[in-house]
Write a structure and sequence with these properties.
Layout: E1 2-5, H1 15-26, E2 32-38, E3 47-49, E4 55-57, E5 75-85, H2 86-92, E6 101-104, H3 116-128
Parallel strand pairs: 2-6
Antiparallel strand pairs: 1-5, 2-5, 3-4
């Protein structure tokens, strides 16, 4: 009934993370669920370059944030777990739509192994376990 995609470059993912994403679908009534983690730095403090290299906020906000602790929590896909109903996935052709639920994973389990620096970080995190 469901497709579960587990990419091999998420070695710190636990069975509990997979179960949590499946529960979001089964208990929460979502047709799909993806794992996410809080992102740093916040895009509220990110900029694009405008004319003459002037900083232009990536996210326009009427509120001015001066402390990191006051920023809204922002989440990004971490690539560790993707779950979807088979028929829904065939129709949508994507795991992520406005119907997709999020399963929040701690950042220390969401590390992606894409390059040598990632490997050093993951080895350090595994040594702490």
């Amino acid at each position: 009934d469901y497709v579960v995609l587990l990419q091999p470059n998420s070695p710190l993912r636990l069975a509990a993370d997979i179960d949590a994403a499946l529960d979001q679908c089964l208990q929460g009534g979502a047709p799909s669920c993806v794992s996410v983690s809080e992102v740093e730095p916040s895009p509220y403090w990110s900029f694009v370059l405008g004319e003459q290299a002037r900083l232009k906020p990536l996210i326009e906000s009427s509120r001015r944030f001066t402390r990191r602790q006051d920023l809204p929590a922002v989440y990004g896909l971490n690539g560790a777990v993707y779950v979807a109903e088979v028929e829904w996935l065939r129709r949508e052709r994507s795991f992520v739509t406005s119907e997709t639920a999020a399963s929040v994973m701690p950042r220390e389990r969401a590390a992606d192994l894409d390059d040598e620096l990632d490997l050093v970080l993951i080895e350090a995190l595994l040594a702490r376990r």
